[in-house]
Amino acid sequence: MKIAALDFDGTLYHRREDGSHSFNQADLEAIRAWRDAGHMALIATGRSRSALAFAMPDTAAPDTATNATQPPLTVDYRVLSNGGSAASGDGAELIYAYPIDTAILEAAIDRFADVEGVAVFGTTIGPVDGVFTNTTDASDEFTAHFKEMTKADIDEHTFAVVPIWVPDDDALRAEVVTWAEQFGNVTVAQNQDYVDIMAAGRNKGTGIAELLAHIGIDRSDVELYTFGDSWNDLEMHRIADRSHAFPHSPDEVQAAVDEVVETVAEILSDYA
Asked: Pfam families of this UniProt entry (predicted)?
């Protein structure tokens, strides 16, 4: 069996010069052909269940880069929240979930509520994600649909990730990483401008492995091809038979993969 594990943001879903986001038509066609050939495709993303659904509508949407109408991206499974949960291909059925200790979320709110240039979010295994504090004076498409929440709302939801957004300040982002790593019961991963905090042991690699176990597929029976552009993709790249990053990926990520490609479409058909 052949499986393509595909990161979402920066791999399939791209920010355009006008600030909008869209897919490359060729990538969608390549994934569709891959599945039509009998192979499996799954999304492995830091996004939550609802955040991925927000960016993957069920109906065709216009490609703002080409003005062409894009059919919906269809996959077999979704590994979400950097391996903190997984769902069926349409996102309707939750397969597993590893909630994070909400004390971590509360600590992040306390620590960064008054720090300029930082936003603290909480993403859940359910239909809504939350924004708790934001002193960045900016907004991001990734969190545009999030609901404003306070500490009083925390007990009403099951959180999988505490994403902390630090745009355009590498030094401050490094401070956030150091702060998060003080907790012994978490995994910390960087994804572009975000520092993601998950339950201990959760990453895209463990998430994919657990999904295969849940659906009854032995890893030894799989040829696994991974595509991902950022640091939070490293763990799934490590378990791949063939791994891929992109020219815009950080140097560390490019050095860790088997091949750097311009797009998913340029190489996926070669493996079919």
From this structure: Hydrolase_3
